[in-house]
Amino acid sequence: MRLLALELGSLQAAIPISTINRALKSVESRLCVVIFLAPELLAQLDSPTKRAGHFKLLQELVSELYICTTAKTDGPCDIIFADWCGYSLQEETWEYTVLSIPECMSRHPGFVGNWQLPRIWSLDCLGQVYLYEQ
Amino acid sequence: MVTRLPRSSLSVRTVTYLSDPKTVDAEIAASSPSKEHEVVAGPIFINGQKANLVVGGTFDHLHAGHKILLSMTAFIASRKLICGITGILTHITPTKSNKTLIVDDTLLKNKKFAHLLESISFRTQTVRTFLTLISRHLELDLVPIHDVYGPTAYDPEISALVISEETRAGAESIAKLRMEKGLQPLEVFVIDVIGDSEANLAMEKIAESKMSSTKIRERLARNEMVSG
Predict the structure, then answer these.
(1) What is the 3-state secondary structure (H, E, C) of chain B?
(2) pLDDT at residue A90, rounded to an integer
(3) B76 → closest Cβ in A55, A63, A79
């Protein structure tokens, strides 16, 4: 399984589809997209009621991601919003190997080898894409 | 540019509207940063009570379109998510091998390549697994349905319905039936998968084939013919 971790700062931000597509070219197995929200966006969406208030934008984001990944992967794809999936991803056993995405590596040269999801929270790069392989 | 996906896909533009603006939860107003964010007051809290949401479908060969529908339902459900899954065990037919063959109901028998439909137990498990992955805190009630109404025909605690554009007619039938029975009307959220990028235009054909259970079964049928 491969994990694509995305941190978003806005529901209206353009999804970096070209980057995702490029990263997904080699994905043939199950793909799991985990969305992390920046604190300011999370504050707008941290309850079902708030999410209903942003239903249109949220569903467009989810649709865009699913359509994008559908076109590029043969295996199944699931999209998880880490902030409201109802369990702590940190407590799951997630270990991934960083794939080489030059723009990610140049900004975060220390990301090599196995590491755990919580560290994504410390990243200061909204909208940046990282791809890991389990 | 807005690209509309084929009708066979889930596609959506319409969202739900609040019948009574006074019930808008204050937190929605507080969280809406600008007019660009369309504020849609959901039925998530009805009379101060957390609302139950219902969604339905066949969910055969669970694909991206199904996942969009289920995801959006789960994301706005606050307590319980009821998912009606087409197919009911109506009769058991003895077979030559003396094993039992379980047959789904008439709603399914007219589907194309019906012999390649997954069993209702398999589809139910697949839906449950997916919902548990994306929204583990919800109380799930996955029920077989054999008509367009399912639990909406009798459950007074259901307050909202999430549908795809192609099942809008079913929602209208449900609204009519509930009115006749004196049940509270349901707020309706319509999912319409919209792609508004050039990239999505190029992906349309691929998405069409992967977001249609019929197309998936058709592919399987072709594979059967080739291998058989």
Answers:
(1) CCEECCCCCCCCCCCCCCCCHHHCCHHHHHHCCCCCCCCCCCCCEECCEECEEEEEECCCCCCHHHHHHHHHHHHHCCCEEEEEEECCCCEEEECCCCCEEEECCHHHHCCCCHHHCCCHHHHHHHHHHHHHHHCCCCEEEEEEECCCCHHHHCCCCEEEEEEEHHHHHHHHHHHHHHHHHCCCCCEEEEECCEECCHHHHHHHHHHHHHCCHHHHHHHHHHHHHHHC
(2) 57
(3) A55
